[in-house]
Amino acid sequence: MENKKWYKEMSVYQIWPRSFCDGNGDGIGDLKGIISKLDYIKSIGVDAIWFSPLYPSPNADYGYDIADYKDISKDYGTLEEFKTLLDEAHKRGLKVIMDLVVNHTSDQHKWFLESKKSEDNPYHNYYIWRKGRKPGKEPNNWLSTFQGKAWEYCKELDKYYLHVFAKEQPDLNMDNPKVREEVKSIMRFWLDMGVDGFREDVITFISKKEGLPNGFPLPTATGIEHYMNGPHLREYLREFKDVLDEYDCFTVGEAPMMTTKRALRFIKEGDGQLLNMMFHFEHMSADNIITNWIRTPFNPGKLKKVYARWQKDLYGKAWNALYIENHDQPRIISRYGSEKYRVESGKMLATMYILQSGTPFIYQGQEIGMLNANLPTIDRYKDVSSINTYKLFRKFGISDKITMKFCMYASRDNARTPMQWSAEKNAGFTSAQEPWFEVNPNYKSINVEQAENDPNSILNYYRKILKFRKENDIVKYGDFELLKTQRKLFAYVRSYKGQKLLVINSFSEGDMPFTAPKDFDLEKAELVLYNYEDNPVIHNGFMTRPYETRVYFLK
Ligand code: NOJ
User: Fold this and answer.
1) Has 201 been annotated as catalytic?
2) Of the listed 22, 168, 201, 548, which one is catalytic?
């Protein structure tokens, strides 16, 4: 029934290399730095590392604009060093997952440089070139998800190329079989070297609708309905899967606006399966409408509903990818938790998602409870999408003050400040005078060294919870039932082979009554995880304290 697989058993640590650890003192994170922290990563209790792109890149989108798929960026090291890293990771029992970004390349990739030389160039059809509708008018009304038009004009060819992200990220023409061969060759290159799988960047965008029709007008990403889950997506993924099947590897596809029903068409187990799991975004919208830039008050009811749906609809059929942070999302404590109750809410949030069924992903710094950077002026930002969105808001006449309020809350840069290792200068991230990006000034109190020395730290809680998950199949394979509770409580029961696990999480700063279901005797159960010292029970329930979490195990 449970169809056990190694990738279901594992948990994954995500590294955004530029900000993880600088080993050579140039202010930029690198492979040497990562190697020096492998024991730390292993100590958290994870089984794999996913690396955001390590490849050569002009960094218009910090690595998601790739200039060479088969090499390592000089900023980070060399291919030889990567092989050492791979080896050292494997020696410690850590799998390695690479980021596969094939919806687009960098505009500095040799394919693109060739492509724009002439229409007869063998690489021309690697990209999506079109004539304008008339002089000066783009081929259609599509807008980039990073703001502005999705087309860039090339004078030499009198044609436009499509870029659904930044203009430095031209979209590949996946309808060209040669491009698909290139993708397969990239996969083989890394898999032959020994990597264990891929996180596939916006993989659901790779097939565009024939004729590239105008899209429904939106303030941003107009046209998305014509390339999200496009007409040939399954076909192309099938081709890629045939290669992947030659290896014992794993894939997780990034899938914006994905629903459970649609997801099953890609991740349902069996012959038709195309990806092992997907990163959907529905649970990241409990404090916004579609994008982090349109903020609404945090709604725990919405969060619970989404989680319950994904748990239920996939159970026994497909596998969830569980995450609450990554390099595109502001820090979760600053969003769904509370900076005031940082430690309590950090532990509660970990419990809330890791004890669901699925493979948990943990983003660097999440395990020590890092917070949003909240940079107050736009000149201090590095992220292209934040800078472009700022400009767009200003263009619509929104004041700098108000725009910055949104930016401070929504920017991806909140997750990209250097990892906080210690209370030393630059948080111990680099020995250089200046790191490439500013360190969050709270590093003196929030850092790995502090967390190591505090038995009650968020870090030590992550260690406990990951160990508990590893040792208990109920966490991985049990079914999931959402309990009816107060809106700000998120309680669920997992059941497996006669065992039961009751998980109670409070999203409130206040106290709230909780009563366990009748068939669950709290007195008889073992309290296995909690974030307050004393844990009294009265009448098979208790009054929850701010951001309290408790986990009871009934064997
Ligand atoms: C999703 C990645 O996670 C994000 O960082 C990137 O900007 C876009 N895809 C474009 O590659």
Assistant:
1) yes
2) 201
223 CB burial (10 A radius; 0-12, 13-18, 19+) = buried
Residue list, ligand 1 pocket, CB within 6 Å: 61, 64, 101, 165, 201-202, 254, 327-328
Pocket test for ligand 1, best of 165, 257, 278 (most atoms within 8 A of CB): 165
Q: Give Cα separations from 145 to 94, 203, 386, 404, 522 (angstroms).
A: 34, 15, 11, 19, 49
Q: Read off the amino acid at residue 101.
A: V
What average pLDDT does range 411-437 have in this prediction? 98
User: DSSP for 40-76?
Assistant: HHHHHT--EEEEPP-S----TTTTSS-S-TTS--TTT
Phi, psi of 114 (to 5 degrees): -70, -45
- For ligand 1, what atom is nearest to the CA of residue 384? 7
Q: Report how far residue 247's alpha carbon sits from residue 253's, in angstroms, rounded to the nearest whole number.
A: 17
pLDDT > 90: percent of the chain:
99
Catalytic entry in 30, 196, 254, 548? 254
Distances (CA, A) of 512 to 346, 515, 544: 19, 10, 5
**Superfamily assignment of 479-554 in CATH?**
Golgi alpha-mannosidase II (2.60.40.1180)
Give the atom of ligand 1 at the shortest distance from the alpha carbon of 103.
Answer: 11
3-state DSSP assignment of residue 350: helix
Among this protein's residues, is 254 annotated catalytic? yes
The tens digit of pLDDT for each residue in 177-199 reads 999 999 999 999 999 999 999 99
pLDDT digits (tens, 9 = 90+) for 404-421: 999 999 999 999 999 999
Among protein residues, the one with the nearest Cα to ligand 1's atom 2 is 201
* C-alpha to C-alpha distance for 153 and 129, rounded to whole angstroms: 10
Give the residue, out of 18, 54, 61, with the most ligand 1 atoms within 8 A of its beta carbon, to mutate for a pocket test. 61
Q: What are phi and psi of 384, to 5 degrees?
A: -60, -40
DSSP string, 446-493: SSHHHHHH-TTSHHHHHHHHHHHHHH-HHHHH-EEEEPP--TTEEEEE
Query: Which three-class secondary structure state does DSSP give residue 510?
Result: coil
